[in-house]
Write a structure and sequence with these properties.
Elements (H helix, E strand, L loop, with lengths): L1 H8 L1 H13 L15 E3 L8 E5 L1 H13 L3 E5 L2 E5 L2 E2 L4 E5 L3 E5 L30 E4 L2 E7 L2 E3 L6 E6 L28 E3 L5 E6 L2 E6 L2 E3 L4 E6 L2 E6 L2 E3 L10 E4 L2 E6 L2 E4 L4 E5 L7 E13 L2 E8 L3 E14 L1 E7 L5 E13 L13 E5 L11 E13 L3 E5 L5 E13 L5 H4 L2 E3 L10 E3 L5 E4 L1 E13 L11 E16 L9 E14 L2 E2 L5 E15 L8 E5 L5 E3 L7
Helix pairs in contact: 1-2
Length: 572
């Protein structure tokens, strides 16, 4: 108030005060700044944002100017900006205003780093880490993509949406359906469709540190959507990935040999795996220390996929997830020397189904497998995996498949509710195991009866509180509730269920070729025929506190020397 009074009483003082206030204003960071304070507006560098003019050079010029000044924000106002590759540099945040869209050019030659335009188009199968995306950062630090805008990969333009995709990675003669496998669903239903030459990524961060992607919408990726290659300290939050579900390989977030990655509050709908942690790369490195929290995922392959590559994967936590409408829920895969260790899943809702078309997977809610990529090659192991509080509604069973005993070790299931549903596609696809990629076509996709929970070659499998339910009618190839073979040290505590067909063949629990069993506190449900079938299982075998009164028969097979205590048997 005193300053206002002086300015009114003495005009000269007022002029000096005004001048002083002007001098106290913060300096303008750039003559090109507008929109966000301290930002570089792409329109000030010539970008048109009309969806027709190629704005690649203008956006890259804004990024270079921002980086040259020490960093800041490149501001993309509302409009549609047709671009090829944008190279993001250190200390630069690319901010997309609500209403702004970066639209990938339909010309594959535009996907090259500045100064390298016109290079030959990418082939559809290559995923060389030297290739680029619509947005690419190489060996950069403190880089970010934020805002309420959209990055549209224009991926549907790089697909032949009238032609079904297929490869020679299986031989139908090994399937249950034989020569008729796939034949009745050649029409495009779930995809995948054939792809043309296409960019291999929408967003690529390679060798980067301190990466952030927040709040943006990423859609219609031509191939992998976000690729974190050999990155450290990456945070992705509030990101929406909505891709064309008919296009193969448009994975959501793919982390290859990256560490300290945190993904939360994202919605991902992808034509391939939704979130991937792998040890892929030309050189052995480290992959892991990854957390995923509060996400909804839809995938034509796996909602969560862990594995592949030459680098070990360890210390990953996945919690509070909904995986729906997917071909597989959670998949862990070892095919080379690298191992997967210390992985935890909790508070997960899974809904999976059989898919028409040439997709890997056959509806499994959970899949763990260790098989060599080539016959005779050494492989790593899957060790110390924890599942807790999982609810699964699926058209297939859980599969844990170790090529040899001990390939999969120390697996704990605690609090699993599994509803196995009949599928309208069972006659076309059901009754097969899918282990692709595998060393031979005979072991890639092949006929196999389907239990609700199948485990082979597992050492130290612990199952606590498994509640198993079936549809009223199930196909004949669905056999047994829990089936374990070539196992060691199996513990089942709190199993509740029966075989798939009421009073039919199979058993609630069937075991063969194993060593060591503890079965306790379990219950046979109405309609149980044989509760426990046991064959060639040696070592200590203890059964205690089980309520088998509703079973027609408590156990069958080689039951000599079973140690029994406080079991409630049929007829008692």
């Amino acid at each position: 108030m005193e300053m206002i009074f002086c300015a009114r009483r003495f005009p000269a003082v007022g002029m000096l005060l005004s001048l002083g206030l002007i001098l106290l204003q913060p300096p303008v960071v750039s003559s090109a700044a507008s929109g966000v304070p301290g930002s570089w507006n792409v329109r000030d560098f010539g970008a048109r944002g009309d969806g027709k003019t190629l704005d690649t050079q203008s956006v890259n010029a804004a990024v270079r100017a921002c980086s040259g000044a020490g960093g800041g924000t490149v501001f993309v106002p509302a409009g549609t900006y047709l671009t090829g590759t944008i190279e993001l540099l250190s200390h630069v945040t690319l901010y997309l205003e609500a209403g702004a869209t970066l639209l990938g050019s339909p010309d594959v030659r535009q996907y090259a780093l500045p100064g390298q335009e016109g290079r030959p188009a990418f082939s559809s199968g290559a995923k060389d880490t030297a290739s680029v995306g619509l947005i690419t950062a190489r060996n950069a630090s403190h880089v970010a993509i934020t805002g309420e805008g959209v990055i549209d990969g224009n991926g549907t333009r790089f697909a032949d949406n009238q032609t079904i995709h297929g490869t020679g990675d299986f031989d139908e003669k090994y399937t249950r359906q034989g020569i008729g496998f796939l034949e009745k669903t050649r029409q495009i239903v779930d995809g995948p469709v054939e792809t043309l030459d296409r960019p291999e990524r929408l967003i690529l961060f390679s060798g980067c540190r301190y990466v952030r992607i927040q709040d943006v919408t990423l859609q219609d990726a031509p191939c992998w959507t976000v690729h974190l290659d050999r990155c450290e300290f990456a945070d992705l939050s509030g990101v929406r990935i909505h891709n064309n579900l008919l296009i193969p390989n448009n994975d959501g977030i793919h982390c290859t040999t990256s560490r300290f990655v945190h993904i939360e509050n994202c919605d991902i709908q992808a034509g391939d795996d939704a979130i991937i942690v792998s040890g892929l790369g030309a050189e052995k490195g480290e992959a892991g220390n990854v957390t995923v929290n509060n996400c909804t995922l839809l995938s034509r392959s796996s909602g969560i996929r862990i594995g592949y590559g030459i680098s070990d994967i360890r210390n990953c936590l996945f919690q509070n997830l909904v995986i729906h409408g997917s071909n597989r829920g959670i998949g862990l895969f070892v095919r080379q020397r690298a191992s997967i260790r210390n992985i935890a899943f909790s508070n997960i809702i899974l809904q999976t189904r059989l898919m028409a078309g040439h997709w890997w997977g056959k509806g499994e809610p959970i899949h763990l497998s260790v098989v060599p990529m080539k016959e005779g090659d050494p492989t790593g192991t899957i060790e110390n995996v924890r599942f807790s509080n999982v609810s699964a509604d699926s058209e297939a069973g859980i599969v844990m498949y170790g090529d040899r005993q001990g390939d999969i070790r120390d697996v704990s299931i605690r609090g699993l509710k599994l509803h196995f549903r009949n599928s309208p596609l069972n006659s076309l696809y059901g009754g097969n195991f899918d282990l692709r990629p595998a060393p031979s076509l005979a072991t890639a996709l092949f006929r196999h009866d389907i239990p609700a929970f199948y485990a082979r070659g597992v050492e130290g499998l612990s199952i606590h509180e498994l509640d198993l339910r079936w549809d009223a009618v199930m196909p004949d190839f669905v056999q047994h509730g829990l089936f374990c073979e070539k196992f060691r040290d199996l513990e089942v505590d709190g199993f509740s269920g029966r075989q798939p067909q009421p009073s039919g063949t199979g058993a609630a629990i069937a075991l063969q070729e194993g060593h060591g069993l503890v079965l306790r506190n379990s219950r046979a449900e109405d309609g149980t025929g044989v509760f426990l079938s046991i064959l060639r299982v040696n070592g200590p075998r203890f059964l205690s506190g089980n309520d088998l009164s509703r079973a027609q028969k408590a156990w069958d097979g080689e039951i000599a020397d079973l140690k029994q205590s406080a079991n409630y048997l049929p007829g008692e």
